[in-house]
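Protein data sheet
==================
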Amino acid sequence: MATMLLKSVRCSPVSSTWAVQFAARSLGTTAQLHAQAQAKSKKTLARPGVKNVVLVEGVRTPFLLSGTTYADLMPHDLARAALQGLLHKTGIPKDAVDYIIYGTVIQEVKTSNVAREAALGAGFSDKIPAHTVTMACISSNQAMTSAVGLIAAGQCDSVVAGGVEFMSDVPIRHSRKMRKTMLSLNKAKTLGQRLGLIGSIRMGHFAPELPAVAEFSTAETMGHSADRLAAAFGVSRVEQDEFALRSHSLAKKAQDEGLLQDVIPFKVPGRDIVSKDNGIRPSSMEQLAKLRPAFVKPHGTVTAANSSFLTDGASAVLIMSEEKALAMGYKPKAYLRDFVYVSQDPKDQLLLGPTYGTPKVLERAGLTMNDIDVFEFHEAFAGQIMANLKAMDSDWFAQTYMGRKSKVGTPPMEKFNNWGGSLSLGHPFGATGCRLVTTVAHRLQKDGGQYGLVAACAAGGQGHAMVIEAYPQ
């Protein structure tokens, strides 16, 4: 696989300094993009007989480095805060929502259906059903598209979707031998049985089982997969560090200019009010170059600085049928249009979801890359992003692995993740999808564009892509 992918890289004319060049361009092209968007054809993706589903509003708690200000909370605390923020921002009555869906990855066992617990805590009517979904890093994407399906099917008119992840306190299990012994102790009926079981315990029984961001099918951590993928596509350490620097620089600029308007203040019990993401840390290429490889040592290229960090946070969006939204007096932000889910080999193509999903969703929508005004791709690793860009720009890869006649092409970097991404803003696994979609809606509003595209990879070799259309101003 690696040899064949290296061949595809030779067919992909992506320069080693593209990130620095495009970072500068992306910081000063808003006016140009606005003019281009205004000149575009204003055809809509609405279809006869198909309900228009709209994004009314989206919010999120500040995304914080795990182990910082949120450390003493629980996942449902963050999810509740996001839901309360959505209620406050929209003013929607607490009994006017038909359904609530939340995505999460590493579940807290006490609140396994975190959607229900957070909804009750936020004050929603106890008559509103709620369920939780999990699909790795695209869990809240799945929550949103499930909401779209419920509305399109006529089951609901108003659904709240969201996601939450809390990496400050993940479940740590006893070893399997200890678990079996403890369960047997619970069933033991005599003192002799209990003493016999206690006597069977050995020191090895006490070794804990720590959760890992690794594939069950391959036992490989995602960082190792990213490093191998970057090597297969010939993505250099310099390219990865350049992209990471771009992400942090653009995120800092967006934060300073007040563009991250989906972030809601959150009063952490016993602490101060948190009002902004704390993982945005612009640096320099010299500083980034000092970091050692984090996964493949000593010659790997993936480091802590060019990878997304463990993050705590929650998000929530209000999704409605257009008819219901207008009847309630809302001005929607965007239409949620076509979407696809894809899956590939989790060993060699674990993180290539955007490459496979983008051409499929564009075909469903009848669009091309040139029609898209705003791109928001999930940044799991800088190497993952760059590998996808090179795969998308390779006819050989499209023909060999995707059964396509030609490449889909790469997004213009002046339209790509212009307000930062998961590398800088943070990546609470279950919450990122809602951030991506809400950011697209806000960028389309600001720049006057019409179409946006969201794409993300996920564990298991899966991926998601969605086309979003701006609501008429």
The mean pLDDT is 92. The two ends are 48 Å apart (CA to CA). The first strand starts at residue 53 and ends at 60.
